[in-house]
Write a structure and sequence with these properties.
10 helices; Aminopeptidase; binds zinc ion; 2 domains; alpha/beta; 284 residues; 45% helix; single chain
Length: 284
């Protein structure tokens, strides 16, 4: 971004033959004035912050089926849990507007999911997914537990969940042009959206941790809060988390995440975490 600004200033100075430092000062003058204005007018007002909008993202959908269990698919479970969560949030927090990235079994491109949140200036982005062990692994059916992710910006090597959750973009039209040739299956790939540090990292970790705590209190096995290069989280302009609600490859957890009681417990866990999160971040 700064490079673009400098390039613009450079171009402008060449064309108009004006001293670059003058362009710099003139260019930033409105910004400086507004800063001064704000510092004089906002001194007496107490800042307030309330969570107004939450985007709930049901992972995968349509031709992107996600992980498969013995009898169920990730895209079906995530949609059920997302809709249930939306209803529970509306019931607990009537003032919060809930938006969904999908409400039926349709394919939704990665960018349109975050665009929805960014355009609506959402306060939180919550993505629902199911975990899975690859069929080749001997421990495929025994591994279980819950883990939640926030955007990471490191190398993608060994980031199994990032590679799996980013793979849907291969199903998008012209994905190579859109993502600059980025291949989520290439372990050497460096993420291309990691230019900026995620300014919402602390709040994202806060929410992810609170959600994990609630899962643990319901007796779930804790796999922790992790940072991975998950595209959908990196593009969100607000605190964003991706929660893996259980392993669809584990028969016991597949039953749980498909059951009404299990889905209800998961959504209540997330709602309880939101209560605590609100207490920590909202300013009355
Ligand atoms: Zn997924």
């Amino acid at each position: 971004m700064m490079n673009i600004i400098f390039a613009m200033i450079k171009d402008g100075s060449k064309l108009m033959k004006i001293n670059p430092s003058r362009v710099l000062i003139l260019g930033f003058l409105p910004f400086l004035t507004s800063l001064l204005f704000l510092s004089f007018t906002n001194n007496s007002a107490t800042p307030t912050y309330r969570i107004k909008t939450i985007v709930i993202d049901a992972g995968h959908g349509g031709k992107a089926v996600g992980a498969l269990g013995k009898y169920s698919s990730e895209k079906k479970v995530t949609l059920q849990v997302a809709l249930r969560l939306g209803k529970a949030i509306t019931k607990s927090f009537p003032d919060i507007k809930v938006l969904y990235t999908r409400t039926s079994d349709v394919f939704v491109e990665n960018a349109s999911r975050t665009n929805l949140a960014n355009k609506n200036k959402a306060d939180l982005f919550i993505s629902i997914h199911c975990n899975s062990m690859p069929a080749s692994k001997a421990n495929r059916t025994s591994i279980k537990g819950v883990e939640s992710f926030v955007a990471g910006f490191g190398r993608i090597d060994e980031q199994d969940v990032a590679i799996r959750e980013n793979a849907d973009i291969l199903l998008e039209k012209d994905y190579k042009t859109k993502y600059g040739g980025y291949d989520p299956k290439d372990p050497e790939s460096m993420i291309i959206f990691s230019l900026m540090k995620n300014q919402f990292r602390d709040q994202s970790i806060k929410l992810a941790t609170l959600i994990q705590n609630e899962y643990i209190s319901s007796g779930r096995l804790d796999r922790g809060v992790k940072e991975q290069n998950i595209l959908i989280l990196q593009r969100a302009g607000m605190p964003a988390i991706l929660t893996e609600i259980g392993f669809i490859s584990n028969p016991e957890e597949e039953r749980y995440i498909n059951s009404e009681a299990g889905q209800d417990e998961i959504t209540q866990n997330i709602v309880a975490a939101l209560h605590n999160y609100k207490k920590q971040v909202e300013i009355e």
